[in-house]
């Protein structure tokens, strides 16, 4: 049985180094995309403090994301590319940090409790496969250390699953 070890969050660089190692161990030898997305969501939700949603949206056609495995409240199923934080991250091909979702034009509110958000695209062989989406009930919960850390988690997920 995989046991998610408690990680000290005070040093974010060390936190994400340790979380990356745990994710590598968790996904080792498994390439099923749904299973790996489910376990990646569960690990992030358990290990990262102050989240109310952690999960995946996958690009199922050129212009639409569809909800994947996640932890948290039920969420909107389809997001057009270019819409919301997730669709904007896909359109631009970059991670998006939103300190206050009320200030992001077009933000799609799945849970009214969400105040800040981090969306990281999943890159593979020059294409975008989808995104990892993290929501927090606290404004400015995420910074560039979180962004770099979750980008590393996204690379581990893609490497194991595709
Ligand atoms: N807030 C996202 C929608 C997904 S939920 O947060 C789970 C967005 O604006 O794209």
Q: How many DSSP H or I helices?
A: 4
- Could you say what the CATH topology is called? Beta-Lactamase
Low-confidence stretches: none
Q: In terms of quaternary structure, what is this?
A: single chain
Write down the Rg.
14 Å
CATH architecture: 2-Layer Sandwich
Please state the average pLDDT score.
95
Strand order of the largest sheet: 3-2-1-6-5-4
CATH superfamily membership = GAF domain
User: What is the domain tally?
Assistant: 1
**Helicity range:** 25-40%
- Helix-strand makeup class: alpha+beta
CATH class: Alpha Beta
Q: For the terminal residues, how far apart are their CA atoms? A: 24 Å
Tell me the layout of helices and strands.
Elements: H1 12-27, H2 33-47, E1 53-61, E2 64-72, E3 78-80, H3 84-92, E4 96-98, E5 116-124, E6 127-136, H4 144-161
Antiparallel strand pairs: 1-2, 1-6, 2-3, 4-5, 5-6
Helix pairs in contact: 1-2, 1-4, 2-4
The protein binds methionine sulfoxide.
Methionine sulfoxide (SME) is lined by residues 53, 75-76, 79, 84-87, 107-108, 110, 114, 117, 133, 135.
Explain this structure.
A hairpin with a 5-residue loop joins β2 and β3 (about 80). A six-stranded antiparallel beta sheet has the order 3-2-1-6-5-4, sandwiched between helices. α1 (about 10-25) packs antiparallel against α2, α1 (about 10-25) runs parallel beside α4 and α2 packs antiparallel against α4 (about 145-160). It has helices at about 10-25, 35-45, 85-90, 145-160, and strands at about 55-60, 65-70, 80, 95-100, 115-125, 125-135. The chain has one domain (about 10-160): GAF domain (Beta-Lactamase, 2-Layer Sandwich). The mean pLDDT is about 95. The chain is of the alpha+beta class and about 160 residues long. It binds methionine sulfoxide.
């Amino acid at each position: 049985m995989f046991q998610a070890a408690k990680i000290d969050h005070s040093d974010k660089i060390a936190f994400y180094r340790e979380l990356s190692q745990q994710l590598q161990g968790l996904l080792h030898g498994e390439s099923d995309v749904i299973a790996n997305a489910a376990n990646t969501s569960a690990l992030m939700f358990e290990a990262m403090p102050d989240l109310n949603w952690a999960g995946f949206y996958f690009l199922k056609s050129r212009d639409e994301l569809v909800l994947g495995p996640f932890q948290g409240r039920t969420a909107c199923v389809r997001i057009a590319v270019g819409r919301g934080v997730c669709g904007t991250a896909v359109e631009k091909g970059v991670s998006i940090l939103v300190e206050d979702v009320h200030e992001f034009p077009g933000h799609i509110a799945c849970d009214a409790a969400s105040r800040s958000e981090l969306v990281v695209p999943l890159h593979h062989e020059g294409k975008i496969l989808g995104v990892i989406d993290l929501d927090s009930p606290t404004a400015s919960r995420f910074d560039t250390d979180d962004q770099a850390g979750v980008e590393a988690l996204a690379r581990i997920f893609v490497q194991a699953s595709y």
